[in-house]
Amino acid sequence: MAAVGGVIAADLYFWAHSELPFAFFMNAVSVGIAILFCATLLFVFPVQAVFENPIKATIRTAFLMLLKHWPTTIALLAGAGAVGYVCYLIPAAAYLFLIFGTGAFGMIYSLQFVNIFKQHNEVIAEDMRGKDWDKKTKAEQAEENAPQRKPRNKPKGKIIK
Fold it and tell me: Which of 21, 73, 76, 133 lies in disulfide reach of 66, CB 3.0 to 4.6 Å?
C-alpha cells in the first residue's frame, strides 16, 4: 500500500508541476485516484480486523465496501480531511489532536465501521442486537443436542503381564 501511495504522490507532484496542455485534466484524474486510494486505505484495516482474507482479497473487499457505503465513506473522508486541514493551518492543533483527539477520532470512526460491518457479519449483528457474548453458536448447540455415542466396552478378562 505504501508503494502504491508513493506512486500516486509522485503522479500528483508530476502533474501539478507540469506545463503540458492537458496537465490540469491529468491532475484532476490523479486527485480522484488519490481520494479512492485514501478511502480504500481507510477501510483496509477495519476489514482486516473483521474478516480473515488474504491481502489482495482484503483490499478488494475494502474497495467494494467503500463503494457500497459511499455516504459513510464521504463523511469519514471529510472528517479526516477537516482534521488534516485544521492541523495544517494551526500547527498547535496538531499537537492537541495528537494528545486529545486521536482517541475521540478513533471512537467516532469505530462506531461508523461497526454500523457498516453489522450488515456484513452475523456475529457483529448479533452483538448489536444485545445477544450475550457467551451464548453458544448454532454449531455448538447442534453438537450438544447430537446423540451421544456410548463408550466402547472395556475388554473382559485379565491383563497378562
Answer: 73
